[in-house]
Amino acid sequence: MGESRQELLSWLNTLLQQNITKVEQCGTGAPLCQIYDSIFQDLPMNKVKFNANTEYEYLHNFKILQNCFAKHGVERPVPVQNLIKCKMQDNLEFLQWSKRYWDQYYPGGDYDALARRPRNAIAPAAQPAAVSRTSGAGTGPARRGTTPTTAPPARRTGAGAGGAAASAAVVQENTMLKETLQGLERERDFYFSKLREIEVLLQHAVDADPEIEKEEDGLIKAIQAILYSTEEGFEIPVEAEGGTPQDDQETF
């Protein structure tokens, strides 16, 4: 299973020194271009439109990415028409694959994301610093597949400025928590709807041919076992007071 949405965003923001809040933002193509620039370090980043806000500009960025794939023999189709719609699931799947590719082929050493971006790009929230994959005081490249980490330089502020900064940090954290919660709820609803569709299809198949449900080693039984399995200690919540077992067993 690939990384979660939040894990990917954390990795992406550390690598690119930006403040990307949604996986859907990869649909502009700009973050993806820079991920692969960190691997191959030869993309024409001055041509990437980091301020893109139309599908025409998104297509321009994905053309750069496709040229990179062709040049370096990356055998993975880029589903451009799906990605530029900026839907969560399509961009999540492609970003998960890109992270696995990065883990395998990132050359190590420093990658200065800010220096590689054009000057008119959207200003990132993180402090300008090279992304390093080294640890401790050593200067050699670190092991492949580890997420780069950087720390912003310490700042000295007065008491008043410190209080204002702390207040702003709390507001920003609350905003990010709300966005995270909304994203998790959308993700939950998305996967629940898929499971429900599978359940309905199974029920239609059983209604059409009741005998297939009696096959103990059949596909229907196997899918139902996955759908209705629970983890140890999990309890099905009671949805309404006074509910009866007959209510739970009723199908429509």
Gist of the model:
The chain is built from 9 helices and 2 strands, in the order αααααβαβααα. It is an all-alpha fold.
Question: Your description of this structure?
Answer:
This protein is mainly α and 252 residues long. It has nine helices and two strands, in the order H-H-H-H-H-E-H-E-H-H-H. It has helices spanning 5-16, 30-40, 55-72, 80-83, 88-105, 113-116, 159-208, 219-227, 245-249, and strands spanning 110-111, 131-132. Helix 2 runs parallel beside helix 5. The longest helix has 50 residues, at 159-208. It is globular. The two termini are 33 Å apart. The model is unreliable at 123-147, 149-159 and 239-252 (pLDDT under 50).
- Share in helix: 40-55%
Number of helices, counting only DSSP H or I runs of 4 residues or more: 9
Strand adjacency order, main sheet: 1-2
Distance between the termini: 33 Å
Count of strand segments: 2
Main beta-sheet annotation: 2 strands, antiparallel
Which sequence of SSEs, written as H and E, runs from N to C? HHHHHEHEHHH
